[in-house]
Amino acid sequence: MTHSVSAAAAITTATRTEKDLLGEADIPATAYYGIQTWRAQQNFDLSGVTLNHFPQLVRALGMVKQAAGRANLQLGYLEPSRAKPIDTACQQVIDGKYHDQFIVDMIQGGAGTSTNMNANEVIANVALELMEHDKGSYQQLHPNNDVNMSQSTNDAYPTAVRVAILLSHADLVTALRSLQQSLVVKANEFSDVIKMGRTQLQDAVPMTLGQEFQSWASTLGEDVERIAGLAELLHEINLGGTAIGTGINADERYGKCAVSQLARISGFPLIQATDLIEASSDMGAFVLFSSMLKRLAIKLSKISNDLRLLSMGPRAGLNEINLPPQQPGSSIMPGKINPVIPEAVNQVAYQVMGNDLAVSFAAEAGQLQLNAMEPLIAYNVLESIRLLSKAMPMLQHRCISGITANVEVCRAQVDNSIGVVTALNPHIGYENATRLAKEALASGRSVIDLVREEQLLSNEQLHDILKPENMIRPGR
Predict the structure, then answer these.
(1) Cα–Cα distance, 23 to 262 (Å, whole number)
(2) Catalytically annotated residue among 330, 401, 443, 458
(3) pTM value?
(4) Continuous segment of H or E residues that includes residue 253
(5) pLDDT in tens, 95-129
(6) Which residues are bridge partners to 19 per DSSP?
(7) What does 24-62 look like in DSSP terms, one character per residue?
(8) Any catalytic annotation for residue 389?
């Protein structure tokens, strides 16, 4: 037994020695990453969020490397004996294997070099095993010379980030569209529930609860198409520009060939930027996309605020709707239920807003031919997509779908409201309406009773004017 434990310990502590510009390091023998990934792991112990936290980014890196390898093979720069195992290794990464080997922190210095090298080393070592060589046998197949051939971090990494956003984008749009439709369903369900509308938290004029839900559905519906359309900005990539956009160390045919390969692999209509130098430093597409995510977050937070206000109570608040209870609300107050789902969405929204600010600062901080802060941009945009893609289904299934209306409470607040005087204004005049509103507020009596008492309108006129369908539709 002692012997077997020692053997296991020996296996887990076994290393291989790799070297780079700065010297040598002992890398775990089982690791598919190499020395540059190892150095980055030592240097950037920051967020604790590693590349594999975003599987679509890892898949995108595999796609970029596969496209580059196929282009280099097609142009005759990479012999088939190396191109085939590289291609297979890339496909395995795309299929979800070896993601645990992508260990670099998302926030890193070097404009993404550590991310690029993490991908190069993992793919190289997987390919080496496919060639029946030991990991680290880089004389047989090299991370830089072979896997990174015709590339620079400065075109491979930004391209991968764009592809990763595109891969994540579909889930975001699906979640948004589904949430929007669930609000439409509730709008139809509550189409006959009359209630008071409010402006500046004060009584305004009557409306239906259905109209309120429809307004939320409409505002989210606006963003479905806008967010879907913004993805087109990410179809333009700088692959082939290498270091600063001049295409140094790459065949002049390589860029368009690699972009064409990547379009086939990813399924997106990718095109090469017309000005590769501009595309290598410009972060405008990320800024615009992040800003749109912030806009969506603000809308979701506003809806969540409204849900919390309308459900407040249940006895000492508006109490117009009931949110489905999800968990006990207090460790000290028995029976208390809190609006935890909207509260969580609020917090997601605040985080997305903060992420967008970080993206803005990072985009502004680029100098000359490169933006070294792109890792922060990638981290925050992908994190915002991830949070929103999770928050919207949570809001839909754990809150919106289970909301019920307190019909009697809603109607009673209309009947007792000063706001109905607005509907009477065209019939009794502004001066009378103002006087009656003031008197009703002071006396606690209803506006309708005061109108009857002063015989300003007949019962038949009142009945017609105060019909819900006449109060809630324009021009009636």
Answers:
(1) 35
(2) 330
(3) 0.89
(4) none
(5) 999 999 999 999 999 999 999 999 999 999 999 99
(6) 24
(7) EEEEETT-SS-HHHHHHHHH--SSS-BGGGSHHHHHHHH
(8) no
